[in-house]
Amino acid sequence: MARLKQKGKSGAAKAYVTRSSAVKKLQCSLADFRRLCILKGIFPREPKNKKRANKGSTAPKTFYYSKDIAYLAHEPVLKKLREHKAFAKKISRALGRGEWSTAKSLEENKPTYRLDHIVKERYPTFIDALRDIDDALCMIFLFASLPSNPRVSPALITNCTRLAAEWQLYIMRSQALRKVFLSIKGIYYQAEVMGQTITWLVPYQFTQSIPTEVDVRVMLTFLELYQTLLGFVFFRLYMDSGLSYPPALDEAKDDSGAGVGAFTIKQVENTGPIADTRSANPVKKASGKEVRQALKDIVTISDTTNETMEPMPSTESVDGADADEDFVVQPSKTEGQTFPELPTFRSLEITPRQTSTTLFAPYTFFLSRETSRSVFEFLVRSFGGQIGWPRSSGSGSPVSEDDPAITHVIIDRPLVSKPNETEEERERRIKRKYVQPQWVVDCINAGRILLEEPYAQGKTLPPHLSPFGDRLGAYDPAAPLLATEADEDAEMEEGEESEMEENVTEANSGLSLPAITAEDPEALRAIELQAEAAGLDYGTFDKQVKKSRKQSKDKAPASEVNADEQNMNKMMMSNRQKKLYERMKYGERNRAAQVCLLIL
Amino acid sequence: MAVSEVTNGRKKRKQADAEPEVVKSTFPETVGLELPSDEEEGEDESDDGEVEEFPEIDARSDSEDDAEDGSDDEEEDEDEEDDEDEEDEEEDDSVSDSTSDAGVFPKPKTIVSDITGQPKRVYPDIEPDYDSDSSTEDDPNRIGNVPLHWYDDMPHIGYNINGRRVLRPALGDELDKFLSTVEDPQAWQSAFDKNAQMDKPLTGEELDLIRRLQAGENPDGDYNPYEPTVEWFTGKGKEEVMPLSAAPEPKRRWLASKWEKKKIMKIVRAIRLGRIVPSKPKATDGKHFYDIWTEAPSEHAPPLPAPKPSLPTHSESYNPPAEYLPAEEERKKWQEAEPEDREQDYLPQKYSALRLVPAYDRFIKERFNRQLDLYLAPRIQRKKLNIDPESLIPKLPSPSSLKPFPNYKSLKVAHTEGRTRCVSVSPDGSWVVSGDEGGNLILWEVIVGRAVKRWKLDGKIGTVEWCPRTDVAFFVVGTEEKLQFFVPPNLPRAVLSLTQSILAPATLPPPTPSSIKWTSSFSSGENEALLTIELSSGSGLPKQFAWHRKGDYLASVSTNESQGGVWVHQLSRRHSQAPFKKIKGTVQLVQFHPSKPHFFVATQRYVRLYNLAEQKLLKTLMPGIRWISSMDVHPSGDHVIVGGYDRKLCWFDLELSDKPYKILRYHTRAIRSLQFHPTYPLFASSSDDGSIQIFHARVYNDLMTDPLIVPLKILRGHEVKDGLGVLQVKWVPRQPWLVSAGADGSAMVWCS
């Protein structure tokens, strides 16, 4: 006879443990358990059958995989946390007894833990780690902008600031920035590093205060992990581009508000092995000569100094560039000559880019003092431009205000006429272009230099759209403009190109009005109601509907015949399919209604 | 008066400061206690006479004493004489005051006698002047030191020296008290004296005492916390030289510990060998980074990365297109909604310039929420279906390719009284008989709908059914407790005679003992039933008939099952029998198998299949319907469809399983009737929603192919009356036509 199955010995009852039993098993406090979960990336699971996992009870519980908990049980950090508990007891006893020297020696030998192994465990490959640094970057940039308080030490903030600057330096140097979006929450940046898209959000430069409903302990634990993770990721990134990590910080410059300019990026002397490892990647076999040439190429790109730059027949003036700020990419000496391209690591990295990374290379910018220097310095330099700023925005400006090389001034002030302007100033004003900050961002997102005129100082700006777009089928604010234009055109030359007109309108607004064209009377009714709620009169709505109906007329007769059949065929769907179908249709209707709300 | 006295007293005290010092230097222990108290007593007396309530402390004099203690020592002797003179005078004043007020003994004075060199008490002289006599003044009460609360409920407060009662003085009411506080600026300095039963101003010393108590200082003004140490057993010349015990001194007093040495040597050796590094530099605050991704990763699959938050859309822009800006209503709705219920966690806003964009107030909160999501939220991997919903609809052959099937209403026959309950089509497909609840029975032609004959029966008509034989023509009608057999008019002679011979044979077969009575009426014409079978009384209305394919057996189901609802009647033997002695559940329907001697019985929940020849149960079909309303067997005999009041239609493949092969639910109300077409691959269902649904149902001979069911047409035309729609549908044999009977009192024919 087979062995009798006992209850709770197998299956879900064994695979899941509740949080309280996990804490009991690990013999640590709940706070420590949480900390461990954060560090190790362990999160609760939802069992398929809660009752079975909970051994018959239906009480609401949090479940973890028992394997996850077993995995936590021999975690070195847990041991350290226990040691820390003992340490805390010892030191409080020593302090209570006034044994200062004991306390001091205890404090010196305080148990500390490192998170290296956790980083390695959670991210077995570098790409894994790189893929997951979005949140880490957001946190680092947030804490870099926070004021210190008793919970958030100044050392922590300094470290965050440093990491943020290192990341910006790397992005500027590798010219990896792709998209920027000025939102009401902050500035979203998107970069592409080693094929991974990384998006991070930086708050606007205001003092933030931590609200009371936020548990700082949790944030600090995350930050602890993120600092370690970013340290290792940056080390690898810097190493891969042949730089030494960490970059040296010039204290004096930093104190005078030089920002990222306070860091000095140094090339690692021994570039040989790195270059070798890099050129080992390409699929194509390279001849020895080519490899040598590629090596030379890399070296010349990387150590561009003033001396090497001067004799070069470069297009723009680079006179102001500091010796230490060599991460503005300059065209290399070998550019003019034709060489068979060897796909080095870098060139492979560059090729799939759509946006030009040297978008601003021909231009020199000057920041007006009300614009954020840290933001626009980062943006302009990421796209190869030169930028200067007034003294009030910090020291280290490579371009002074009266430099004749300046082509654009980024200004965010209303237009004020200056009555007493010297001749020189007037001339300078005419020569330069004054643009609002949005121009820079829109240029980056468009991948080309846009006309400055709509963005000129004091002008009402055109809308700033998200470069990340919206979800599929959502309302596209750029499309209606095109559609109406096309409509107008078509109406003007009414009879002639009626065929083409139809094609155009269908292509443009057929997309934006999927719901209205739909034959479903329920959907139409829902849209109508929404439109009414939005305060639209029936006439306009009707016109819209008719227009879209007209567009889809050709399709209509055929579909009408099918509609009945389709409706009848729905009878033969299984219950599950029917539900799924209804859900999808419901979502479709909702989305269409939302789009409709925006259009009308 | 009191104030001046107090100030006087203070002055005096200042002048008299020197006196106690004299004594203090010589008797440090006692002076502090004795002298000032004496002095103050005097002062008290000078103020108001009888006191002794509060301990008297002279703070000021004392502190001055302390300050001058050391310096004054030598001078005092010289000053003494002069002082004495002055003091005498002052003393006189004070004494006179005190004596006049209190009438107690004058205060003694302690001085060092010139002669003996010992301190002595000197009392001031009593001068017999007017002031010294206190007899003329008001007597203070002299009730003695008797607790006053003894007299709490008495009118008096004690007894004087003569044994007379001393009455409680009038105290005045609250108003008086208040007025006295207003009038007297010193009222805050006075306290109620119980013995005197009146308010007494506090002396400066008492106030000082109160202040000390309030400040938490030592109440004793004379207390000196910094008294010089008295060395009793230590100090020069007082060393203890004798040992306390006679035990010999232990070795450890002069020999270094061996074990300590060993321990130390261990550490020293470790340091020498470099095992212990003193003041080891710290490990650079964990900021040491290196390339941790050098060796190949383990085979373990990396943990799934956390889902990334969705990217911002246009509406989050600082300068969005105007259509994204919420209207006032939307804004209000958003603000009133709970944060969890909001679709977006922000309200779109437009700023004309970047410099005007403020800080986002929920930034940290949102970051925090993201982190909570990361470590507290269970994650589920959801497959995102990126398919066209239309692709979920099964692809079926088009109905137009499956013609013919009925798709329009060709004619309608109206019953005037009540619902048309039942309808039946003759086996040759040209006649229809329909019956209603009013007892009307109409025989009409299928093609033109002309009513050929009408019968009027008494009571409701439960069901009507043609005999399937083609060589005879009659139909059976079920009314209350009766089965009546009718013959249509205008029959060919041969058919009529054969029919009559079956229903009313000239020679009756021998009667079998049964409760069912068969009566034939030979004389009657077409208006009367040719044969009547009377069921047992109380069996109710027959609700369904089922003919055996050969037309000899007729099964009937009656509504009242308690009497045995199912009967099988054999026409040739004119005999009825109940096949089931007892059956579980209410029998709804019965059906003969089209080819085998099998019998289907549908109760409310189950369909049971019996073998009549072997008299046993073959199968129980479980449709899971509550409750079964209709059933039909496919002409092949292998498939059964069952409809129910819960709108479900179940298709059973008898070869396959006793669970439904397919369950369809398309009617919006209960299914009333179902029928397979005898020749075409069609079946129809009717429902209380007033619609008839036509299906194409093709059954294949090979066992591998599933039956093909294609919905073809929804026929609408019957009206819903009192919640009832189409009550029965019947196919016209040999034609793809359908006859239906509705609750609206009409019968309809649907043609292709």
From TrEMBL, chain A:
UniProt biased composition (Acidic residues): 487-504
Domain of life: Eukaryota
Role, per record: Component of the NOP7 complex, which is required for maturation of the 25S and 5.8S ribosomal RNAs and formation of the 60S ribosome.
InterPro entries the UniProt entry points to: BRCT_dom (IPR001357), BRCT_dom_sf (IPR036420), PES (IPR010613)
Record GO biological process: maturation of 5.8S rRNA from tricistronic rRNA transcript (SSU-rRNA, 5.8S rRNA, LSU-rRNA); maturation of LSU-rRNA from tricistronic rRNA transcript (SSU-rRNA, 5.8S rRNA, LSU-rRNA)
Record's keyword annotation contains rRNA processing: yes
Family named by the database record: Belongs to the pescadillo family.
Subcellular location: Nucleus, Nucleolus; Nucleus, Nucleoplasm
PROSITE patterns: BRCT
Oligomeric form and interacting partners: Component of the NOP7 complex, composed of ERB1, NOP7 and YTM1. Within the NOP7 complex ERB1 appears to interact directly with NOP7 and YTM1. The NOP7 complex also associates with the 66S pre-ribosome.
This protein's GO CC annotations: nucleoplasm; PeBoW complex; preribosome, large subunit precursor
Name this polypeptide is given: Pescadillo homolog
Pfam families (alphabetical): Pescadillo_N
Ranges where the record places region Disordered: 487-508, 544-568
Domain called BRCT: residue spans: 355-457
Keywords: Nucleus, Ribosome biogenesis, rRNA processing
UniProtKB/TrEMBL annotation, chain B:
WD repeat coordinates: 664-705
Biased composition (Acidic residues): 36-56, 63-95, 126-138
UniProt feature, compositional bias: Pro residues: 300-310
Top-rank taxon: Eukaryota
A family per Pfam: BOP1NT
Predominant place of localization: nucleus
GO terms of biological process kind: maturation of 5.8S rRNA from tricistronic rRNA transcript (SSU-rRNA, 5.8S rRNA, LSU-rRNA); maturation of LSU-rRNA from tricistronic rRNA transcript (SSU-rRNA, 5.8S rRNA, LSU-rRNA)
Region (Disordered): 1-141, 298-343
Keyword Repeat among UniProt keywords: yes
Residue span(s) of domain BOP1 N-terminal: 151-406
Family: Belongs to the WD repeat BOP1/ERB1 family.
Described purpose of this protein according to its UniProt entry: Component of the NOP7 complex, which is required for maturation of the 25S and 5.8S ribosomal RNAs and formation of the 60S ribosome.
Name of this protein: Ribosome biogenesis protein ERB1
Biological source species: Coniophora puteana (strain RWD-64-598)
Lineage: Eukaryota, Fungi, Dikarya, Basidiomycota, Agaricomycotina
Gene: ERB1
